[in-house]
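User: Mind token order:
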Amino acid sequence: MTLEFAPASDTALPLWPVWSDEDLPPEAGTWPGASGFAGKTGQICLLPDSDGGLRGALLGLGERAQAAWDRFPLARAQGLPKGDWRLAALPPGLDPDQLILGWLLGQYRFTRYKGAPVQGPRLVCPDGVDGPRLLAIAEAEFLTRDLINTPASDLGPDRLEAAARALANQIGARVEVISGTALVKQNFPLIHAVGRAAASEPRLIDIRLGDAGPMLTIVGKGVCFDTGGLNLKPGASMGLMKKDMGGAATTLGLLKMLAGTGAAAGLRIRVLIPAVENSVAGNAFRPGDVLSSRKGLSVEVNNTDAEGRLVLADAMTYAAEENPDLMISLATLTGAARVALGPDLPPLYCDDDATALALQQAGMAVGDPLWRMPFWDAYEPLIEPAIADLDNAPSGGMAGSITAALFLRRFAEGAGRYAHLDIYGWQPVAAPGRPKGGVGQGARAILAALPRLF
């Protein structure tokens, strides 16, 4: 499937999005009333012409009071017949860019293993809407979704590196990769320890774009599959672990967005992805091990299934050595975040009020919500075990997302500002513009917040 807008032409059929409480356009005639159309959310009414063909359609938007919770109402129009369509009117109260982005995101299909891409209805980009920018955003989100949806059999650390190199070549970025035993020699002991038992060796992917301006560094968790290690996950919990590289996938999607929209101009952007597979073998790291970190802090491993914060720790330390103006970590890190806020609302941790407010407000504005949670200093003792500097999995099970964020913050020292997003990276139930499966979270919020961040 090619993601594109239809060319403007007289043959494109008109589409009227309508609220349930508004009068229907006079062009619709009496047919909608006779066919039971009431403007309910997602309801489509095809308008016949005198010859039995199509002359247009109505799309129900539902009640205006629910509009704030419906991120991509126009995505429901993917149920229209194949052909070219144009918006006969932009519904009042809705952001045109967000509306059209919803149409584009609704076209996503993951067809790598089944069937072939099918071209659905196409939309003429309305006047005043920046079509190329929205296409760049949607294509970047599709990259994220494709990476998350691809199983580990076809996307281990080596393949994730290949995807990163392909993107870097596309946007003119530079790439360096440290892998295997070189991680030990160059002082990335935690990344190596977590990934050394896998068939595809662990690696740290380092991408740079831009040579001048403030530095934005994004660190994405790239655990391509997580068995839980020797603290083996039960089968029901392991089934979705191809998505444990959702932070890396979202980070690559964000990099593609920044480059494709021109938002990267005037910035130095660095992306770091520790890419590993947490596997079981004779050389796997063990519960009770005390590991060294690049920062020099020792870490007691009380659960090998809390591996994401370990690989992020070395990558973040490396990032902080350059003193970036803003460092952001993106990771499918804790089940506790899902218990607290569910799959749709990632926690945002940030000590800088202006940065946190910019990200949260931007996320709400573009349908990519974040919810601020506290770096609660009173919980710091929970991550300090008796025999090492840090504990990767505090006992008790309470405040798991907060203690994980506190653990990461220990390795952000040197960055001007630091923010952490504990994302899910998965859409468990299909929604307009977000089919069931891999999904990016936080990238569009960061993109929209950039003017306020620098």
